[in-house]
Amino acid sequence: MGLFIEDYKVSGADTVALEDSIMQKGKQVTAGSRILDNFTSPFNATVVDRLLDGGFKISGRTVMDEFGLLKLSRDDDNTPSGALRAVSEGISAYALCNDLFGRYRGEAPKNDCCYIHPTYGTVSRYGLIPLASSMDQIGIVCKDLSQGFKLLSHLAGKDPKDGAMFPDSSYNYGTTDEKITLGVPRSVVEKADEGTREAIMDFIKEFSSTDINLEYFDLYNQVMYILSSAEISSNLSRYDGIKFGYRASGYTNIDDLYIKTRSEGFGLDAKLTAIMGAMILSKDQYGPYYEKAMKIRRLIKESVKFDTYKVIVLPCRISDDPYENLALYSLAPLAGLPSVSFSYKGHGIQLVAGVKKENLLLSTWEVSMA
Amino acid sequence: MKYETVMGLEVHVELATKSKLFCACSTEFGSDINENVCPVCAGMPGTSLMVNKKAVELAIAAGLLTNSEISPRITFDKKNYFYPDLPSGYQLTQLYSPICKNGWVEIETDAGKKKINLVQIHLEEDAGKLIHDDWTDTTLIDFNRAAVPLIEIVTRPDFRSAEEVVAFLEKLRSLLSFADVSDCKMQEGSMRCDLNLSVREKGTEKLGTRTEIKNMNSLKAIAAAIAYESQRHIDALETGDEVLIQETRRWDDSIGATFSMRDKEDATDYRVFPNPDIMPVFIDDEWIDAVGSNLPETAQDKFIRLTQGLGLPEYDSEIITRSKNLSNIFDETLKHFNNPKEVANWIIVELLSIAKGDNKGEDDVRIDCRKFAKLIELVDGRTINRNVGKKILSLILEEGIDPVEYAEKNKLGMINDTSLITSTIQEVLSENPKALEEYRGGSKKVHGFFVGQIMRKLGGKANPQIVNKLLVEALKEI
């Protein structure tokens, strides 16, 4: 499979590749799904406008997993996603994407790249094809975090077209003098392979650190899966063959149109998620699943206080099971926190900080690279 | 055996905002098909929703007018179902935190005054409209109405008669239209209502099997549907020929009966959950007070002002305050010609009869009030007579003419010249010897005939009082 759906054949230090979930006026935008086969975007995503205003060039539109959904079924697919390859192979300086389930955060270090997942509500999602609206966040694949944050400063800041944003009109990303204490969740780190464990031990030596217990960690992936499935199933319902996108032929009535269109248009992961989400939101399951997961989500948010520690250190892989690894990537989206991932001594490390505390992440990274 | 009908209402009222609930598209009625549609209200992916502040304010106003509690924090929920008129596959509504709760409205029927309690009022978005073309057997969709803001007013099952239901809807229409919350036009669909009805033996507590009736587009239809459906329930209870089931039924106005919709609606699981895309809206007391202090006069206040302040008869005041439009015309015209009795008279007698002839309701009459005032002044000051005035009124409505200019240009000024009128009377009398004979024979009817003839000769412009007086004198001399 190629890297680009569309390659604009530009190169240089100011090039940005767009994952196919980001709207570009007049371009075909499919989010990697057949259901959006013939969909042409009537508008630019705000991040696209801001890139162009900032003098950046769009290098192309990259292939992606259908809607960026969680692939529980096929972890044997080791091909990195298009946005990551664009940067890792040096074709584009940056790439923008929506990494809900941690695919990019996990793969970036292995491909000599870094990933920035900004605080929820700091980068406009106007023009991002929604997955789970309460967690979606456009992030940056880059070679170097300090460069990545420079790009982020062009993108972040309130957009009147996105209703769920902080009021700040811009953000100043840079290093900070604030004292950094790392929080290290031993029980999680211990699950990582030996090399990663050693790398993390080396990494924290350079800072003051404290052992922490991530409460509810064993529920992270479950809460993430339940809430994201519910939101995604609702967000996928607009793809019905009526107004835009793919429509099956040879239907006999309206229900048949829906069924054929969605059966032919969606891939396996989209179908599984739509069905799972509908079940979770159904009358009998709403209380035991959705409502309970919402409560735990609040508890998770409240449990990470960033009081005795400022930055949480996590590995990028703890298991061969993608569902177990999902726990590592759930904290940031569930609590709306910023995170970065990068390679340290050949192993993937992930850092998570408090709301709008991106500068702590950048500072930590810079110290470790020095 | 005596039966009692127990009813509750769900009333949908389209809010009179200029733009839709979550985007800037116009809400204008009667636009070209799909003229008022943008990526947001077409449900395209990647769009984001902004709550229309005006819609929230109008819902607050509705809450204040119905004595409701206003919620300090409101959110929107997603109600998921597939239907082609619903662009995103979910309707945004308020299940978990409705904007108003526990209100009540007082109604008055022949049986006296009664409080109707409201469960809640919530904000939600409307859906598009399906247009079926039988000729080509296709269905097309007009999304102009999609995401137009609505409030749904849900009452408790407090109604016991059709009179009460109609009185409630009329009161609601008056309250909401006078406050500019909605124009509440049932024909245009800006006020729609669904009815829940059950029948039980009088004196018993337990409610009977409930049916929901939809598709009633006028107060008349609602009253007829209640009569029909109550009887159907009573027949079923008495004869046992039909087993009542809880279902949704459609009123067919042309047939005058309800029919089971046989849809899966009652079995549909709407999977409602909080919409994470829209931040909560906070409503503080300051905001509520601001909305409250800006509320226009209610029909009731206006009635008191008209009767007690301006000294208009209750009958006239009742007609004028029945319609927001008429009372606006009244107030506006009064600004230009301060004679309440005459203005009321011209609205009730002349304006409404022309409107009726044109098949327009009191809410649909439109007139330039400045010109209307000038016209009334011309007649009141005896510059033109009333019949000429009526003709000019039609011309104002049809062509927008200026009454003063028109009367001057066409020399419509009233003829008060007694010698001209006297000579015209003589002409008419001598030209109609047969009628004169009848008059001598004692027929008083011919008096009117003579007046008509005289007026015709004078182009309808003669001062009717003078004509009358001089004609009586002339006839006496014969």
Summarize the structure.
The complex is a heterodimer of chains A (370) and B (478). By secondary structure, chain A is of the alpha/beta class.
Give the termini distance of chain B in whole angstroms.
75 Å
Low-confidence stretches of chain A: none
Mind summarizing the main beta sheet of chain A? 11 strands, mixed
Number of strands of chain B: 17
* Average pLDDT reading of chain B: 91
Helix/strand-derived class of chain A? alpha/beta
What would you say the CATH architecture of the largest domain in chain A is?
A: Alpha-Beta Complex
Low-confidence spans of chain B: none
Which percent bin holds the helix content of chain A? 25-40%
Number of domains of chain A: 3
Determine Rg of chain A (CA atoms, Å): 20 Å
Sheet-strand content of chain B, in percent, reads 15-25%
Element string of chain A (H = helix, E = strand): EEHEHEHEEHEHHEHHHHEHEEH
What is the spatial order of strands in the main beta sheet of chain A?
Answer: 1-3-2-4-6-5-10-11-9-7-8
Average pLDDT of chain A, to the nearest integer?
94
The total count of helices of chain A amounts to 12
Give the CATH superfamily of the largest domain in chain A.
Amidase signature (AS) domain
Helix and strand composition category of chain B: alpha+beta
List the chains of the largest interface with their residue counts: A-B, 42 and 29 residues
